[in-house]
User: Fold these one by one.
Assistant:
Number 1:
Amino acid sequence: DAGVIQSPRHEVTEMGQEVTLRCKPISGHDYLFWYRQTMMRGLELLIYFNNNVPIDDSGMPEDRFSAKMPNASFSTLKIQPSEPRDSAVYFCASTSGGRAAGELFFGEGSRLTVL
Amino acid sequence: DQQVKQNSPSLSVQEGRISILNCDYTNSMFDYFLWYKKYPAEGPTFLISISSIKDKNEDGRFTVFLNKSAKHLSLHIVPSQPGDSAVYFCAASRNTPLVFGKGTRLSVIA
């Protein structure tokens, strides 16, 4: 079975550019999460969806960040405009079972470098 | 404020010995705790979990201990193997998305 698929794996961009990260969750999973990993803050939750509906976006750093889930098999995280402090590894994860807690299945991550 | 704390950024252990990774939490409402393992350039993968109604859960070489009164959990790996070298994340929840610690990098030396 395919796991969570993220693209791109690596993205290098210049400050001010728009960045779009993509995620395909595991089929049948009804929860999707976006986490960001940095040395300073570890793994922090940005936003999560249940049945394609955003439930909590309080972790999104600022208005430059936005996320969508147009259908059960696709989600995007967009940063516009990007800044050097956005450099991090962004993980998408999904799970099922009717609760937001539980074993999460992570993608391999998208490493973003903003110059 | 960090609700889940892993105070040791790194740990080195000799092959065959026991590795003990520690985690503290501040939110007494958490009722479910997990450990994830992460290799470089990969996503975290689930390792073991424990519910707050238990104080120990064992899976092969991995055992998680929970001390609710101290708000502390630990992961024991015995015997440690070179393939265990990775970053280990502690996570906690109460029917909410997992809150992760910053991770501890374990190096098992052959």
Number 2:
Amino acid sequence: GESVGLHLPTLSVQEGDNSIINCAYSNSASDYFIWYKQESGKGPQFIIDIRSNMDKRQGQRVTVLLNKTVKHLSLQIAATQPGDSAVYFCAEEDYGKLTFGQGTILTVHP
Amino acid sequence: GAVVSQHPSWVICKSGTSVKIECRSLDFQATTMFWYRQFPKQSLMLMATSNEGSKATYEQGVEKDKFLINHASLTLSTLTVTSAHPEDSSFYICSAKWGTGTMNTEAFFGQGTRLTVV
């Protein structure tokens, strides 16, 4: 089956910087995308989602951008904090089932 | 948001024994529940999808006789790892969706269960 992949496995930033995590997807039929945050030993935590009829969606300190032309998804975190350190996964939904990307480890240095 | 609870959070069992993991939706009725497995430093891999009152649908490569899934009610799904072996050691995570139409709706995840088979 098709899969979702990430460009960067690790990302290190300084506290206060903006972070950008990227994701490439290959299933053009996917119409719903979600970003999750996973801390060590815990289940995924929903961050933000976007449907395929949108190209941008904003939440609190986070923005998701969707470029369907190049099948690219990104998560922007503003003013990154140490508490944002975690693994971030993008996921795409096809017929109700989620396919997760590889994950990006975000490390925020104080 | 809605709460999904898994029990136990961690379990150690002897090789050859069976282990049951529970997934409960605490404040909503879960029409569909999903079970994932996650190995260290890897992504979540979907194992199976279960709808209340019907048999689970397993992903390719997942042994349905080894990973028994029961979704007997709208608030409880169980995953039983039968005749567990060390290679079954992993982090098992469930998620749940509500509503009659489960597409494009948020899935709520449990906190995961760490299974170690010795």
Number 3:
Amino acid sequence: NAGVTQTPKFRVLKTGQSMTLLCAQDMNHEYMYWYRQDPGMGLRLIHYSVGEGTTAKGEVPDGYNVSRLKKQNFLLGLESAAPSQTSVYFCASSFSSKHPDIQYFGAGTRLSVL
Amino acid sequence: DAKTTQPNSMESNEEEPVHLPCNHSTISGTDYIHWYRQLPSQGPEYVIHGLTSNVNNRMASLAIAEDRKSSTLILHRSTLRDAAVYYCILHGSGNTGKLIFGQGTTLQVKP
């Protein structure tokens, strides 16, 4: 059972380039989340999805777009990367929002924007 | 969202118990107390959660104060692999599953 898988693991972009981060989960979870973590900080929620075809903004959504076309996948897009988006990105999933709603995290994608 | 306060860092000796405190004085009646930890270069992982009563699982114990304004995560016998950042998070019923992470407590385990 792979759990939550993120691709790629590492990426270096130039300012203005675009890219898509892929998150896949094999636990049939309804809810999926994208977080970012800056050095020495806790995780901050970018966008989340409560089901296939639905997305919503989190705490820091600017500069990112997301899509949830399939239940098992949650894509995070950067249309025009900026140095401020250099961070570690984590995807998570959970069965639902009902307690205890344990979230399962991927290993992260380390993104550098030059 | 109710906030939590944790010490920035703590140290323990290997094979000794560790008590990680968390203050949450503005907790509401429906907020669950969740603990996650993040090992170096990994994503966070769930540790334990509770509402009012003390809880035990294979990883740790959670002691919740009677007024619920504080809680303590207890690692009964710390190992070097327990060195991580530990996050205390309040999870309310209206959060749509969202977790709000603070800076957590960095636990250093000495051999």
